[in-house]
Structures are given as C-alpha cells and as structure tokens.
Amino acid sequence: MLKCFRMKLSAILIGLGLILSSLTGLHATDVEHSVIVSVPDQSMVVLQNGVPIARYAVSTSKYGLGDSNGRYTTPLGNLEVAKKIGDNAPMGAVFKGRRWTGEVLHPNAWGRDPIVTRILWLRGLDFGNRNAYNRGIYIHGTPVENLIGRPASYGCIRMRSRDVVRLFDTVGVGAKISILNVSLGRAMSEVSFMHRSTIFNG
After folding, report:
1. All domains of the chain, ordered by start, with CATH?
2. pTM, whole model, 2 decimals?
3. Residues of the chain scoring pLDDT < 70
4. What is the pLDDT of residue 189?
5. Distance CA 69, CA 64 (A)
6. Alpha carbon separation from 48 to 19, 128, 176 (Å, rounded)
C-alpha cells in the first residue's frame, strides 16, 4: 500500500515538473547556442557562440523533405526551439500528446516507436517551414536507436535518449535550429556566413 502511494506521488511530482518546465522560459531567448542539422550526413552539431561543442547522430524523415500539412516530411531552413517538454522525466519516458504516460522504454524495445525522453518543439522561421510548429515537428528521443544515423522518422529529428538529454540541458527556448540538405561541413560554412552577414548588415 505504501509502495503504491509512493509510486503515485512520484508520478504526480514528475507530472508537475513537466508542466512547470513547459511554462518556464516562455519569454527567455537563448542567443548563445545554435544547432545545425545535416540531412545527408544525418548528423547534428551544437554551437556555443559559433564554436562547435557537441556532435550527435540523428534521424530525419524516411519520407523525405518538405513542410506540407498531412505529410511526414522534415522541413528545411531556419527554425527555433519554441518549447521544451520533459525536464526531469526518466530516460525512456514515453510521451503521448506531449504528456508522459508513465511508461518507460529501454532502447530498441521490440515493436515500439513512440516519442521518448525529451521534446524540443520547433517553430519555423521561414516561409518554407511555416507549418512546422502546427505539424508538431520536434527534436525528440526515440527507442529505435539502432536506426539512428539514417532517415527513419515521420518528420521529426530523432536522437538517442542520452544525446537528447544533453541537447535539452544545453540549449534553451529561442535557440536557432538550421536544418540543411547539405553536408555538415558546408552547412556550418553557410550558417557562419549568414551569421557574419547579419552582423555586418545590422
């Protein structure tokens, strides 16, 4: 009886933490960090003040690229982190409707492919990715970690649970996300050039 009560209390406290984490930082903007995703390389680089600090393997959509409603494609261009969901949830926590169900999955759990661990909800900043937020395009954890490094998602950017936790803890709301259909080296050069042009023209 006491064990059951403790489990329910723990679930309630984690649920409250998830709600609070979705409300905090709504007006904060992370201008220090940015993220570049290369679709051909299925790889992500995290930058701090323009300097690479981490690199992770990812999975983009197995249905290709684009931002049309009703399609499971990954949008390209400039986006930002609009909301962060799942702070303090356990590794492998299963999310449905952006809420933790209470279930926890181990990596590569057979026959399962939900959103797990953390969610960074993205908002498009370009005309060509304006539907991203309403389409529910996230950076999120996946239990299907054996497919990371190749296109396997339904539009989102998938990461290993341990990696998405690190990303979640590093970048804040407002951090810029560039998803580009070029190699990582070229993507970093293009983003760096755009950054310098903005400073020069500003």
Report:
1. 2-201 (2.40.440.10)
2. 0.82
3. 1-28, 191-202
4. 80
5. 14
6. 28, 26, 11
